């Protein structure tokens, strides 16, 4: 049986590949369990960054609808349970990881696959890639955090347009709208994504992790509460070995050697 997730561990970062290319890396229960286990292992073994990508010609086509086909079931599927048991915990895990998660979208990202990418911290995409909120085609809503991320990233009008029409959004348009960080020539995608992930892993990951937490909290914080969070986080960073090393390296005009602490 083919492993639905491929994991390549480097010195201090992990590359995770969705590996059901014959199904455009669409999710079944096995792949859900394997992906979450891989992310948790990266966290628990002290990795300092993760790169997520897909095998073959697509990134992820979302849920494998063959596993949720009402015509093959004795009663309607409980898609709420699917979200609560699989997609919501996956998004929460990615958002809670205290290090950067880079997503390299190597091809089509549709449905939950598109919104899985948007849950990551930095999204790079091949110029041939497309993002499709395909839920309307089967009478559903954007899940996997899509209905939360989309309006925050591109505004309500564009979010509703993508959700209602299921129109494919080319990677370069996604970059222009601010949905993703950068669209790259296809042949450059993985090299740049790996270099970026390695760079984050060798960077001041305590500060990067706190930056991630602060930016994510801004969606619901008041300004006053957020200023207090900034003060708390700056106190933590200021007491860290990375800050001391960063200042020393700056004053000594050398490259810093961060430890992530």
Please provide a written account of the structure.
This protein has 261 residues and is an alpha/beta fold. It folds into 2 domains: 5-201, 2-enoyl-CoA Hydratase, Chain A, domain 1 (Alpha-Beta Complex); 205-252, Lyase 2-enoyl-coa Hydratase, Chain  A, domain 2 (Orthogonal Bundle). It contains 10 helices and 10 strands. The chain has helices at residues 29-44, 79-96, 112-119, 146-154, 156-165, 171-177, 189-201, 205-217, 223-238, 241-252; strands spanning 5-9, 14-18, 50-54, 58-60, 101-105, 108-110, 122-126, 130-132, 169-170, 182-184. The strands form 2 sheets. A 6-stranded mixed beta sheet has the order 1-2-3-5-7-10, sandwiched between helices. It has a 4-stranded mixed beta sheet with strand order 4-6-8-9. Helix 4 (146-154) packs across helix 5 (156-165) and helix 8 packs antiparallel against helix 9. The radius of gyration is 19 Å and the shape is globular. The model has no long low-confidence stretch (mean pLDDT 96).
- The best one-word shape is globular
Number of domains: 2
> What is the class of the largest domain in the CATH system?
Alpha Beta
CA-atom Rg in angstroms: 19 Å
Could you please say which CATH topology of the largest domain applies here? 2-enoyl-CoA Hydratase, Chain A, domain 1
Mean pLDDT across every amino acid position: 96
Number of helices: 10
What percent of residues are in strands? Answer: 5-15%
CATH superfamily of the largest domain: 2-enoyl-CoA Hydratase, Chain A, domain 1
Quaternary status of these chains?
A: single chain
* Proportion in helices: 40-55%
Quote the distance from N terminus to C terminus.
40 Å
How would you characterize the largest beta sheet? 6 strands, mixed
Q: Count every beta strand, where a strand is a DSSP E run of 2 or more residues.
A: 10
């Amino acid at each position: 049986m083919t492993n639905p997730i491929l994991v390549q561990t480097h010195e201090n970062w992990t590359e995770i590949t969705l590996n059901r290319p014959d199904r455009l890396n669409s999710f079944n229960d096995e792949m859900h369990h394997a992906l979450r286990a891989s992310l948790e292992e990266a966290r628990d073994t002290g990795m300092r960054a993760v790169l997520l990508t897909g095998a073959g010609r697509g990134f992820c086509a979302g849920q494998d609808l063959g596993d949720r086909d009402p015509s093959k079931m004795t009663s309607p599927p409980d898609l709420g349970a699917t979200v609560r048991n699989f997609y919501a915990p996956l998004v929460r895990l990615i958002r809670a990881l205290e290090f950067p998660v880079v997503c390299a979208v190597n091809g089509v990202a549709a449905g939950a696959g598109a919104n899985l990418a948007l849950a990551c911290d930095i999204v790079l995409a091949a110029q041939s890639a497309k993002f499709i909120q395909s839920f309307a085609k089967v009478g559903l809503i954007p899940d996997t955090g899509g209905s939360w991320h989309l309006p925050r990233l591109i505004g309500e009008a564009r979010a509703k347009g993508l959700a209602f029409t299921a129109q494919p959004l080319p990677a370069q348009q996604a970059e222009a709208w601010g949905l993703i960080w950068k669209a790259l020539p296809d042949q450059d995608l993985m090299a740049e994504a790996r270099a970026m992930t390695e760079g984050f892993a060798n960077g001041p990951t305590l500060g990067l992790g706190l930056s991630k937490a602060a930016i994510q909290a801004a969606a619901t914080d008041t300004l006053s509460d957020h200023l207090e969070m900034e003060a708390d986080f700056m106190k933590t960073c200021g007491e860290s070995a990375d800050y001391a090393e960063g200042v020393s390296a700056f004053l000594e005009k050398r490259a810093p050697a961060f430890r992530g602490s």
